[in-house]
Amino acid sequence: MPTLTINNKRIEVGAGTTILQAARSLGIEIPTLCQWDGVPPMNSCMLCVVRNAKTGQLLSSCSSQAQQDMEIETDSGDVCAARKEVLDLIVSEHLGDCEAPCSHTCPASMNIPQMMRQMYSGDLEGAAYTVTLGLVFPWTLGYVCPAPCQNPCRRKSYDETMQIRDMHRSVAEAGYSDAPELLECLPDTGKRIAVVGSAMAGMAAAWVLRKSGHACTIFEKEAKAGGKLRSLPEKDLPNGVLDAEIARVERLGVEFRYGIEVTKESLDEIQKEFDAVVVACNGVAPPSGKVFEAKEHKLNVRAVGNGKEAALLVDRYLKSMNGAAEKHLFESKIGRMEKPELEVMRSHNENREAMEPEPVADNLARNQTEAGRCLHCDCRKRTSCRLRKWCSEYGVEMRKFTAAELPEYRIIGRDGDVIFEPGKCIRCGLCVAIAKKYGEEIGLTFIGRGFDMDIRVPFDEPLERGIRESAAECIEACPTAAISWRNVEDAEHCHTTTWIEL
Ligand code: SF4
Ligand code: SF4
Ligand code: SF4
């Protein structure tokens, strides 16, 4: 029964216990990619290195057994540097988009491919949740937004861009954004926030803060909310659209106080009365202390994005997290794709049964059909990928490929329900071991060597023959989305370890 220390904590473990297991029983997390309970240590990713302080040696903790009197350090400078090097190397050949280019370009970061999937599958309540949570004013923006998200749409490089703006407009127009469930807020926090200005940024900040459980009061010098959007002609923004969406903000419980001009002087009084202030108009006061800024912007969707961001800062401040470092979120991006690659993507992702040319009169139904054209460019494990998690944790940046270096984008499908994207495979070997554990007749194997090594079904048999019984566990264990369910909603249910809330 060896006794050792890990980060100066003493522990006695059974013979044969690995350092990784010993650390876990102390509640110490060591990053891993290729470790999976139920299969022998792969020892392939080397991310789980730790340092034996007595010898100065770096050890792979998943395969090294705990020894008497070891003094293990799991997060010293050299250990972190070694892990970062491992991640840099893996990322140097990783080909995948964590986020879809459309969502990435939307200044309010709406989850566009999720909206597409929900619309196509008929989950219009879900689609309303996605568009309202993302845009706050999905109906108004459906008229006034110049749709910057439609420019980088991969479908545009293939044939025609997805009509994203029209889609969120039609969901809201049909009344789905008025569902009472959308007005649910987190329990009251007892905190009170003042928002100065009621154009898009101010109202978006108030919406997010109220949903987070804080009481919100908007001060507006005019008699109505909405700022410059009020002066748009009927042909650009029909009467009633903006009012209907402002009414939703009111129903959420945001209080509007009209006809009050907040000056530098009156701001001092407001600061005394409220726990935080969001200034969403010009010339009142610069941000400082408990005063935050939500910049209005002539691009209305940018103003909404600014309001959402300000609300998150205020929420962190109220939870006394303002000192906490901002988390870096790793982003892998493929960049430009050529038509043959887009054709591969289309053949696996498009919902072809939706492509019947028959004209559908109703705008919403037509858009639901249109949603079938989406290529679902976001990663199937965007919130649960272990590579993304550790690259975020260790501050790893994605490497930009030059055009000459860019590997070929490939997808290999299995009967339509499982897909394999070789560009996302880190060759950890888990799927090979899991297929073997299930006694698969053919299974999976490594072909080639070094950087050219690839996971394949032997004898070029189709994927379904390699992972007949073991597919679900291979998908669950795969540290990235290299092997995944085609239908991402299945994927989200399968991956229990979502680690980022988006
Ligand atoms: S596999 Fe992970 S790192 Fe790669 S694109 Fe998907 S989420 Fe990003
Ligand atoms: S095809 Fe779909 S997911 Fe891809 S960029 Fe266009 S709208 Fe976004
Ligand atoms: S496909 Fe297999 S070898 Fe590649 S990352 Fe996933 S589990 Fe590892």
Structure description:
- About 2% of the residues have low confidence.
- α6 packs across α8 and α9 runs parallel beside α12.
- The chain has 4 domains: 77 residues, Ubiquitin-like (UB roll); 114 residues, Alpha-helical ferredoxin (Fumarate Reductase Iron-sulfur Protein, Chain B, domain 2), CATH 1.10.1060; 134 residues, FAD/NAD(P)-binding domain (3-Layer(bba) Sandwich), CATH 3.50.50; 109 residues, 2-Layer Sandwich (Alpha-Beta Plaits), CATH 3.30.70.20.
- It contains 19 helices and 15 strands.
- The chain has 502 residues and is α/β, with parallel strands linked by helices.
- It has a 5-stranded mixed β-sheet with strand order 2-1-5-3-4, sandwiched between helices. Strands 8-7-6-9-10 form a 5-stranded parallel β-sheet, with helices on both faces. The protein has a 3-stranded antiparallel β-sheet with strand order 11-12-15.
- The protein is globular and about 75 Å long.
- The longest helix has 19 residues.
- It starts with a strand and ends in an 8-residue tail after the last helix.
- 43% of the residues are buried.
- The chain binds iron/sulfur cluster (3 copies).
- One iron/sulfur cluster binds next to α3, α4 and α7.
Helices and strands, with pairings:
Elements: E1 3-6, E2 9-12, H1 19-25, E3 49-52, E4 57-60, E5 71-73, H2 77-91, H3 101-105, H4 112-121, H5 124-135, H6 138-144, H7 154-158, H8 164-173, E6 192-196, H9 200-211, E7 215-220, H10 241-251, E8 255-258, H11 264-273, E9 276-279, E10 291-293, H12 300-318, H13 339-349, H14 363-371, H15 386-393, E11 412-414, E12 418-420, H16 430-437, E13 445-447, E14 454-456, H17 463-466, H18 471-477, E15 483-485, H19 488-494
Parallel strand pairs: 1-5, 6-7, 6-9, 7-8, 9-10
Antiparallel strand pairs: 1-2, 3-4, 3-5, 11-12, 12-15, 13-14
This protein binds iron/sulfur cluster (SF4) (3 copies).
